[in-house]
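User: Run a structure prediction on this.
Assistant: Running it now.
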Amino acid sequence: MYKPILCVDFDGVIHSYTSGWKGPRLIPDPPVEGAIEFLIEAQQVFSVAIYSSRSRYFLGRRAMKQWLLKHFVAMCPDYETAPQLLKDLIIEVAFAEPWEDEVKYAAKKFIAAIDFPLQKPPAFLQLDDRAITFTGQFPTNQEMKAFKPWNKK
């Protein structure tokens, strides 16, 4: 079944990016609230691709995957406190006890379904914190220079 591509920027959209750029392999900050749940829901309708300035580096792409794994697992320390959406995903792919193994398995399956391309894909839609929507009117230089991402306003 064909799913349109949703290209999601990593830094500032998924990764909160409060510390700024630390290199392609160092991702020190937590997720933007709701980011992992958003990606899970988006996978139901879209082929999700995560693209970043890190993407051109093999170790940058690996760092993004490891970061997602770490934060998915951290959100699910036990069955009772796991967010319902993640709990549903874990139960859907559960294979054995203990809970920690089921969480890691579900997280890896979730991440494996995400594309981490080397180049920005020809997406149906892009979600980026550093973009201006083109409405048929070109922005002025002043408007572009005054641009601030959502977390800097």
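The chain has one domain: 5-152.
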